[in-house]
User: Fold FixH family protein from Sphingomonas floccifaciens.
Amino acid sequence: MSRRFTGWHATTILVAMFTVIIGANFVMARFAIRTFSGTVVDNSYVASQHFNRWLAAADAQTELGWTLDVAMDADRRVIVGTHGPEGPLATASLTAIASHPIGRVAERSVRIAPIGDGRFRSIDPLPAGRWKLRFTLRDRGKRAIFDDEVPA
Assistant:
């Protein structure tokens, strides 16, 4: 003998369905809030006032023709090769700051030493994980900033 489908059955199905949907949304919202690293800029209006200056600085850097080759050795030390229009930047100095892409770990300064012919190597290894590196390259009174990312 089959039972009839009543209003209570329909109500139970609807309540169960919306409970699952609301529960899934709640869990996803908690994950999103817990992993959100913050804002890109504190005040977008103020940032927009600097935009043309940032474009001019980027154009000036492009005109220098400098490039970096960034790699990681087996000991997780960063190896950087510098290149200019005439070849390696042998007289350059390089500094770097490492930050976690999601912002979970505090920024850290990376100590870098020259190893000759426009190449540099970090003194200390980077901890395991993905790292975003901001390099500041200086040579003959000029400066360029490069962003690179090293894989986990």
About this structure: The mean pLDDT is 90. Residues 65-150 form a domain with the Immunoglobulin-like fold (CATH 2.60.40.1930). The helical segments are 7-35, 44-49, 51-64. The chain has three helices and nine strands.
